[in-house]
Amino acid sequence: MKYSLPATAAVGLSLLIAQPAFADAETEALKKEVKALEARIAQLEKKEAQDKKNQQAQTQQAPAATGNNTGNASIEKRLAIVERKQEVTQEYTNAKDAVTPKFSYTPARGLVLATPDNQYALRVSGYVQADDRSFLNPNNKDGNTDTFLIRSARPVVEAKLTDYFDSRFMVDFGKGSTTLLDAYGDFHPMPGSDLFSLRAGEFKLPIGIERWQSESDVLFVERGQTTNLVPYRDTGIMAHGQLIPDQLEYEAGLTNGAVDLATPTNTGDTDNNKDVMGRIFVHPLTWSGIEALSGLGVGIGGTYGKHQGGVAAGASGLTTGYATFGQRTFFTYRATSFANGPQRRINPQLTYYYGPLGIMGEYVADTQEVKNGTHDMNLRNNAWEGVASYVLTGEDASFDGVTPAHNFDPRSNQWGAFELVGRVSQLDVDRNAFGTYADPSVSARSAFETTLGGTWYFSRAVKFNLDFSRTTFEGGALGNYDHQDERAVLSRVQLRF
Amino acid sequence: MKLLPTLAIFTALAIGYQPPSAHAADAIELLNVSYDPTREFYDDFNKQFIAYWKKKTGQDVTVDQSHDGSGKQARAVIDGLKADVVTLALAYDIDVIASKGKLLPYDWQSQLPNNSSPYTSTIVFLVHKGNPKHIRDWDDLIRSNVQVITPNPKTSGGARWNYLAAWAYANKKFDGDEGKIKEFVGKLYKNVPVLDTGARGATTTFVQRNIGDVLIGWENEAFLAENETGKGKFEIVHPSISILAEPPVAVVEKNATRKGSLEVAKAYLQYLYTPEAQELVAKYYYRPSDAAVAAKYSNRFPQIKMATIADFGGWKEAQKKHFDDGGTFDQIYSGK
Hints:
The structure holds two protein chains of two kinds.
Chain A: H1 5-17, H2 22-57, H3 67-99, E1 102-106, E2 110-114, E3 120-135, E4 147-161, E5 165-172, E6 179-187, E7 197-203, H4 209-212, E8 234-244, E9 248-255, E10 275-282, H5 291-294, E11 296-308, E12 322-323, E13 329-331, E14 338-354, E15 357-372, E16 375-391, E17 417-428, E18 444-457, E19 462-475, E20 486-496
Antiparallel strand pairs in A: 1-2, 2-3, 3-4, 3-20, 4-5, 5-6, 6-7, 7-8, 8-9, 9-10, 10-11, 11-14, 12-13, 14-15, 15-16, 16-17, 17-18, 18-19, 19-20
Chain B: H1 3-16, E1 28-35, H2 39-57, E2 61-68, H3 70-78, E3 85-87, H4 91-101, H5 113-116, E4 119-128, E5 148-149, H6 157-173, H7 178-190, H8 199-208, E6 214-218, H9 219-229, E7 234-237, E8 241-245, E9 249-251, H10 253-259, H11 262-271, H12 275-283, E10 287-288, H13 291-296, E11 305-307, H14 314-323, H15 328-333
Parallel strand pairs in B: 1-2, 1-3, 5-6, 8-11
Antiparallel strand pairs in B: 3-9, 4-6, 4-7, 4-8, 4-10
Helix pairs in contact in B: 2-12, 3-4, 6-7
């Protein structure tokens, strides 16, 4: 198929503006004609019935009138013409549809322009998140600043290039920087089957169930402590698919090896080693037919790779720091520490959805060999979290967000959907890290977060989050004291297009 | 983890991957993209050719058919339909495949005899048995009590032949006065209650839906309706002037070369000119190009005065003057 997407886009837009096609006006005229003929037939039938009645009442047979029969035959012919015209009009419409690009917009899917045969399609969507961060520590905000900010501004462009290939491109202009987040292509060698696809480029890894959730669907303004220990994005190749449709999905790949929580820089790998990663996720009880059980999902994922940091590598190969809910860094390695060997992550995951109730949980064990001077040690950091949500207005909770049954429209007494959310999460840094590899006077050993919040879904496209969070620490202050609690109120308006 | 073993695994997967359709090396599959009315003819012809080729070469051939309006089929081939051969209603449609699709040479028409037309036809009238409206010639089609069925020349190749046949008659009647010719043809199209998209649709309207008093169409379609599909219900009227319709055939060389079917595709079209195939041509009421076979069936096909496309300056000129946007058809039909 030879379609020029820019030309197709021009045609699609002109069709949006263009007057109704000849077929629509013609169809309306035909419909009017049919209605008029139907009325005329009803009249004639009534008259015929009356005539028959009159004939039966009379003693003498009157000669049968031929005018009505001739009139009926003529009307039948006209009806046949009208019906055939409608069929032919539909043929013209079908022929036109077969060559006219398809153009549609919904908040859920964005703007979609597709060739008539759906072999090529371009989808433009995105979202903007405008946040407010307020900290409630009365005397000392401890480096936290009350601020408004554009947390994310992400246009997304996706293209389908026949049934075999598609691609995705997403950039983030939030927080005053420009970051390429997604730039990958997928190859589907078996169109129509989800069994196996191959992805190459930069993409999100399925390690960390809360991280795996789309930014626009996350329940809270910021993710929990487990996300500190998993990669953000990485570059490489990944096979993915569903071994059993809707029941068992898998991902397995080879990537450069991203450090914990790091924002991608796209400057290439700092060493010759690559990480392998994989995950399987199952819905083990969908076969049961019991609705209350079929929403359970469990999985396990992990990564393994050798990371080598240091002066020669130009980077430490370690995380730049673990962050609180309010996005303050509460732990970093010393500047002289660097990765000096394998990093392993293991990540069991759980989700459960049943009607308006949603539950999510995970655990991450992250072991990394770290060196500082002559000291070399495997350090193991752990994190866990549990999340619960409940949609007060009765809509279904889901991993992919809530769709209000009725969009916000006060004129119709409709207010959208409301969801209550709660989370507890904790991150523990290996005690052996402190002293040699991390400074205990500035880095906390542990952070425990509790967050309560709510989300108001005005529609699928617009939502408002409000979260109250308290994070307590062990260590992280001078004299081995505990860093003061962080008490934060974060809110967000998200607009999806 | 080392890169090379991993790459070896992925390479093995790629080599093992088989595309969905793989064919045996010595069997050939041809796709014949044709226009509407040739379905029955090519059903029979294909069986004959397959048997002939098997006997001659021992090679198995299957032939798939695609039928639709001629112009629509040409566009489909340009847009990627992998035709090995095209057997369309008019040379203009194959010219477009050559010029826009670059799938066959510009001089394609000279590569087979009779301007690559193994059979011809003409345009006639099909009327109800007994000819109740006494339709004898084109003048009768503009009477106010006559309803005419003919397809839309903007969408149907056959309809363009119909239009040009009417124009040819009016041209002779009015001695080339274009204003009067347009008026005549305009009156004819005012009598068309349903403008079908294609020739087959027009036949459906007239034969099955019993709409109209006369169907203008291909002679072969008219014979089929008279003798088979509508046996006993219709009769053919040959007008005093018609047009020589030369449906051409061509190998889509680029597709056939890519598919490795070039030799068989050429043989397929050449077989159309053999006496056996020409007998089949006559059986399905096309006028054979073979003189001997044509003579055998001369009683079936009356000799009538026929204009040719050359009288209109060739298809390129005819398309531009009559059927392009703003052409004579748009001028007379928009006034309906």
